[in-house]
Design goal:
The chain is an alpha/beta fold and 364 residues long. The protein has one domain. Helix content is 41%, strand content 18%. It is built from twelve helices and twelve strands. Strands 5-4-3-2-10-11-12 form a seven-stranded mixed sheet. The chain is globular and about 60 Å long.
Length: 364
């Protein structure tokens, strides 16, 4: 019966979600991001910290969109927890600072009490970073509670054992060839009417989608679902970032990884064009096969993918339906898009994309 209902209800529920929720609005997003970065650079510390780091010594791992739940059918994080725990162990030992970029807890669908009860192990792993002053927690739209509830400070202290300030953003700052590079990290829901305080979105998720998802055991977090909407939002984020000077923007929110302003499919198209210009027919054939496999996962591609500035990055999410997680590393003078998978009994870290920050700055 569950399988039958799933086949019937999946498309109507996803359609209703897209139909009745608002879409990203360029002007509002531009205004919100510009106002936020101005307040942070003006040293308004309640909005977010400015963190200077040495180009070759600084180490950061940026994860977003865990959506930690109550281990029921609506908990998108449940499958991903083993990879997340392995990743935290690796990054803690390697001296990284952990930046959780929002929507860490799914508080539209669950009470905080339930989330705390079923996520003690990963919260304890995060606590180790805080104890060494290596943890930055940023709120998103699904865990906006951390910013607007008067008791949030107390709840955070009961979880982590000490005071923890949750910010709207963080600004990492380094120097490359005597020039300053800023890396602006925020969840990315700012100015998006669907997510930034929209009552219907919260009602739909909590009262309609979550119970259906729990019963039908649906995890929609693959690039195939609502890909056009995600690409639209990422495109607006890219547009804003491309107008900034000496700045990279890193967000989450869309669950769609972006590296150097390109999605995976756009990067494959670009590599295909470059292989053609070089006369490498063998490489073209290899890329054509990969493109054909990936095209169904994306409903839109930027027409400017050959000339886009590499100013925008998206960490993806920690709640894919196969249990994989993606994130952005900044270490050894490089920025990397990484994926953690669990092909057997041991979690595996894979570098999907990598470029030195020095090379990247030359392309801005």
């Amino acid at each position: 019966m569950r399988r039958f209902l799933r086949s019937i209800l999946l498309k109507p529920v996803l359609w209703a979600s897209a139909k009745f929720s608002s879409r990203p609005e360029k002007q509002k997003i531009f205004e919100s991001l510009s106002k936020l970065i101005d307040r942070i650079t003006a040293k308004e510390e309640d909005k977010g910290p400015v963190i200077p780091f040495d180009l070759h010594e600084g180490r950061f791992i940026i994860f977003s969109d865990h959506h930690k739940g109550a281990r029921d059918g609506a908990d998108d994080f449940a499958m991903a927890e083993p990879n997340y725990l392995a990743a935290l162990d690796y990054y803690f030992s390697a001296g990284y600072t952990l930046i959780n970029l929002g929507d860490s807890e799914e508080l539209w669908e669950n009470s905080l009490g339930k989330v705390k009860k079923f996520n003690q192990q990963n919260l304890e792993a995060e606590k180790k970073f805080l104890q060494q002053k290596r943890f930055i927690k940023i709120f998103g739209n699904h865990d906006l509670y951390w910013d607007n509830d008067p008791l949030a400070w107390w709840q955070l202290k009961t979880i982590y054992g000490e005071k923890l300030k949750v910010y709207e953003a963080a600004l990492l700052s380094t120097t490359i060839n005597n020039n300053q590079l800023n890396i602006f990290c925020t969840h990315g829901h700012q100015g998006d009417a669907q997510s930034d305080g929209n009552w219907f979105s919260k009602f739909f998720v909590a009262k309609i989608w979550a119970p259906l998802q729990a019963y039908l055991r649906i995890n929609p977090n693959t690039p195939a679902y609502d890909g056009e909407k995600k690409s639209l939002h990422n495109s607006i984020m890219y547009e804003w970032s491309s107008l900034q000077k000496n700045m990279l923007l890193i967000t989450g929110h869309t669950h769609q990884p972006v590296f150097g302003s390109l999605t995976l499919l756009e990067r494959l198209y670009k590599q295909f064009q470059q292989a053609g210009a070089a006369g490498d027919t063998s490489k073209q054939a290899e890329l054509r096969a990969e493109i054909q496999k990936r095209e169904k996962e994306f409903s839109s591609v930027s027409i400017d993918y050959m000339t886009m500035k590499p100013s925008y990055f998206n960490s993806g999410c920690c709640c894919y339906s196969d249990g994989d997680i993606t994130g952005i590393e900044i270490a050894e003078g490089c920025v990397r898009l990484i994926k953690w998978t669990l092909p057997g009994q041991v979690a595996h870290r894979e570098i999907l994309e990598e470029i030195s920050l020095t090379e990247l700055v030359m392309q801005l």
